[in-house]
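Q: What does the predicted 3D structure of DNA-binding transcriptional regulator YdaS (Cro superfamily) look like?
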Amino acid sequence: MSRAPDVDYSATSARPDWSALPQAVREALADALGSRITAVSPPVSTGFTGGFAARAELTDGRQVFIKAAQQGLHAYNAYQREAEVVPQLPSAVRAPVIVTTARADDWFAVVSEWIDGRMPGTPWTAEDFERATAVCEVTAEALRPSPLEGLDRFFDLVRDDVKVPAQILAGERQLPARLQEWVPRVLPELADLVTLAPEVLVGDTAAHSDLRPDNLLIDNAGVCWTIDWNWLTLGPRWIDWVGLLPIAQHQGIDTFTAITRNPLTADVPKDHLDCFVAVIAAYMLKNPDLPPPPGCTPALREHQRLYAWTFLDWLAVRRNWPTVEV
């Protein structure tokens, strides 16, 4: 493959319609909201879960965003975690307010305020990158030290991913298809780099831990919001922002200069930053050739391939990897 794949982030999920939710769930939501639901938009087709997610209009004039999932789906636990976490975030963290929750049968629903916004990074512009950077700086400051108790370490979240490059080298896992032709040559260095993770990917900051452009919203006033707070962990204060850099670089933003000037990263050792990017690249090398899980479209696997590609490209520049065979 000679170029990174294109991904349509407006079509990454296949979610149920409002009519597919059990009547008991819809009634429980109306009771929890204290208002009848008069209209529900078609479900959003972004994100990487198969849970219901759509804007709703209420008789009292409010607009809200409803997410609901049945027990057994990843989204069921994710929505519960978000409902637990968001009310504990400091006011400086700009996340949609949780309005209410509801349970019925084996379903859980969480309702948040509706933010009329757009996803940045399609592609990144300098203005949107500055907005996202500012949000990451403010959020990191507000969440250090973590105001939430009992969080797992970020390293624990990615512990198994650290093993992926070595597994590929050992023949225990296949190298995914359609990546840069030079990837096999740099796998030994990638495997070495991720071994720093136990000492690097720890810290006292509560991190979003899954910050991507599709987990950001820029509203009509230009304000940047952070959504989907179900992977919160303890880690270095810079990981959320650094996780945005490789795809932004791929789309024309000079992140190599930005990382030397930003207060989140200016004093962080190069190997620490590169280790984190290497771990995310390793994670993206898992399973991109398999069919997507239920509720996701094939765009999920192309997203993995795009992120593996761009994170490896970013490392290749930073570490002078041999991308041309001589």
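A (community wiki): The structure tokens above were generated from the sequence. The longest strand covers residues 63-70. The domain at 118-319 is CATH 3.90.1200.10 (Aminoglycoside 3'-phosphotransferase; Chain: A, domain 2).
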